[in-house]
Amino acid sequence: MDYKIKSRIWIEADGNILLGEGRVSLLKAIAETGSLSKAAKKLGMSYKKAWALIDAINTRAAKPAIVTNIGGKGGGGATLTPYGATLIEVFEKINKNCWRFLDKQIKKSELE
Amino acid sequence: MDYKIKSRIWIEADGNILLGEGRVSLLKAIAETGSLSKAAKKLGMSYKKAWALIDAINTRAAKPAIVTNIGGKGGGGATLTPYGATLIEVFEKINKNCWRFLDKQIKKSELE
DNA sequence: TAGCGTTATATCCTATCAAATATAACGCTT
DNA sequence: AAGCGTTATATTTGATAGGATATAACGCTA
Q1: Which positions on strand C lie below 7 Å from a protein C-beta?
Q2: pTM attached to this predicted model
Q3: A13 — contact with chain B (CB < 8 Å)?
Q4: Which of A20, A29, A61, A78 has its CA 20 to 30 A from that of B89?
């Protein structure tokens, strides 16, 4: 039998979810498109959900990860802050390290 | 800000979930009670869900983890196999190791 | 000042998952 | 042979999360 081990990690602040894989994807899509609505469409996600996620991230993080603007050039938009970029970087690094670690663990276990 | 990192791991066989935290809890409850229905009640889970989980585990694992009996002494029952005990042991060990690993990682990251 | 594309927000609607319920089948016990 | 408590299974019901839709507010642009 060929067993594989999978994982999901997330960061919590005060017992509330701050950042997981889905939220990181959203942050990256916003960084690429400069817009919350375009990022949502790109990911096949409703605007409502995307907005709720960003709101949760911003209210729970030590500093905002996304800055939004209503009106103005192009109608407005959303941009990733340097702090948001740091969050992405840290999350993805730890996530990859976790995968490697677990692969070693399952091999060491010698399950049949 | 006090960030914590959380994780869930699970084992897959042929792309299907074989074992996760909830299923391990169920296996342990069956080992303690000797009965699928009692284990379900103990965990506040419906019998239907418990049965479906055990069925999924048994059909996907290399060998059965639980043996069930209809009728007979006490009406029947369910018992954990030695292979099932091994699965629990391996899962819980890797899970604990994963927690320790991630704690180190988040401290090393020095997120603020 | 009118128009635009965006964020922000409320309301309604629907699809999906799980709980609840009912019932059959089974084999030891007495 | 009747009874018991269990596994196994189908069907109905209910709750909840998310999608769809509509609309207001906003500030630059032209």
Answers
A1: 4-11, 18-22, 25-29
A2: 0.91
A3: yes
A4: A20
